[in-house]
Amino acid sequence: MTGSFFSAVFNVTRRELAGYFSTPVAWVFIVIFLVMSGVFTFYIGAFYERGIADLQPFFQFHPWLYLFLVPAIGMRLWAEERRSGTVELLLTLPITTWQAVLGKFLAAWIFIGLALDLTFPVWLTVNYLGDPDNGVILAGYIGSWLMAGGFLAIASCMSALTRNQVVAFILSVVVCFGFLLSGLPMVMNLFTGWAPQMLLDAIANFSFLVHFADISKGVIDFRDLVYFGLVMMLWLAATTLLLEMKKAD
Amino acid sequence: MNELVIDARNLCKKYGSLVAVDDLSFQVGAGEVLGFLGPNGAGKSTTMKMLTGFLAPTSGTALVNGHDIVSDSLAARRAIGYLPEGAPSYGEMTVRRFLEFVARARGFSGKNALRAAGSAIERLNLDRVPEQTIETLSKGFKRRVGLAQAIIHDPSILILDEPTDGLDPNQKHEVRHLIRDMSSEKIIVISTHLLEEVHAVCNRAMIISDGRLLVDDTPAGLIARSRYHDAVTLVVAQPERVASVLSELPQARKVELREGELTVFPAKGCKLFEVISDAIRENNWNVSELRLEAGRLDEVFRQVTQGEAA
Ligand SMILES: Nc1ncnc2c1ncn2[C@@H]1O[C@H](COP(=O)(O)OP(=O)(O)O)[C@@H](O)[C@H]1O
Ligand SMILES: [Mg+2]
User: Fold this and answer.
1) CA of A208, closest CA in chain B: separation in Å?
2) Is residue B12 included in any domain, yes or no?
3) What are the φ/ψ torsions at residue B179 (nearest 5 degrees)?
4) Is residue B211 included in any domain, yes or no?
5) Which ipTM score applies to this complex?
6) In which order are the strands placed within the sheet that holds B157-161?
7) Is the dihedral of CA B193, B196, B199, B200 positive or negative?
8) Which of A195, B64, B191, B307 holds its CA 20 to 30 A away from the CA of B252?
């Protein structure tokens, strides 16, 4: 039974992934991602000038890069299916809505992972120039991909909310922004003084930044993994619920 | 009991305060090709979306091959092949890849999926375009792709929502031909707002309006409801004079003159054609046209859906 559960999921994933590469959009996305992460790392992050052999400048901009690029990938997940009517085809096949949600999410996540992998020249550069701790770098990549998954699950949910991709994009950016910022001092300052400590901790704990920073230091804490896992599961569950409610509109 | 393949029980669907399907109950058995007739907005698509598990009914349910569409939706869906309205498909995929995807989703794996896609391509005469992306196909071919994905698992039930809508007359003819071909081995429910379609492919017709079932009959029975059924229409040189003579016939209930055509309606249970032929011969009228009316479906349709004779 589990075998058929996942074969249905992967069938959707496979179709979706093939769909990405049959249009130029995927390649455009990859190029933009690579160029932007290069610009951030080498110019804004002062990669050379720092004189330290690590990928801290590379990873530190990922949250901001994802803030716009992941919603750009995620916005079409369901909005497009609903606009073109294929959602009716997909969800009258003998697969559950949850399987479809998971399958489409996985495709986009794998795709982002692929784009992330293609930044390997940065890794080669740093190894050529110095002697970095490759364990930390690997952790950085894993953390970055997990964070992208969190953003993507949010975008998937926003995409299920509307058949308009632009609306889905804007909503995703706004919600992702909230999740990014919730741990920053300027946000926390709004709450300190009046909110109970428990709430403060909770808000700080919601932040992608905090958990990503933990992982990219090279410490893969079980709690950070659970956090990103839960974030993804919850938003994908919300996607499923929303679709069930709104697929007819 | 096994003969009942679809058993809809008090299906209701509300969109907010709008009642799209209102307490619809019907059964469809083996060998039936059921036409869902109704004006736009009647609730045909909504009913089909509920039967195929896309929408949950607001209340009521249906059994498909014995599986409840609400509590056992996946099993019900397995028994059904469905062509949604407008035949949506993934335009960027090639015909073959798309059909393989559907085959896998339908439980075929590996070589079997390829084989299922291949045979669907063959059955729908798509052999010329299997490697073409769907968005580049003509409307008629797209519709065939939609039909191909619907039959790929050889379902016992086919549900087709407006399968010929938007096609040109040749394409319409072709799609109807394909549907007729499949009707020997499957039960088919097809929705349409085109009356001639009922004649062309169905052996049973249900007229729905405002979500309610108004008429459930055979196409012949439907047409017999027309006030034109068994009426005789003729075109003659002096229609007024002829009309006054014909209206004296005991078999004639009423005579109408419209746009130069004289239509004589029979009194209950009477046959008119021979009587009128005799009258023509006796009076030596100059008749350029004479025909026995089977009935007019469009008139029945209007009469039923608007609640009065046109
Ligand atoms: N998603 C929806 N939201 C609100 N109203 C809808 C929706 N889908 C259909 N309707 C309304 O429900 C009624 C029945 O529609 P539909 O089942 O599509 O009719 P048909 O297929 O017979 O043309 C119409 O009045 C239509 O406007
Ligand atoms: Mg319709």
Assistant:
1) 34
2) yes
3) -65, -45
4) yes
5) 0.88
6) B80-83, B157-161, B187-192, B33-37, B204-209, B212-217
7) negative
8) B307
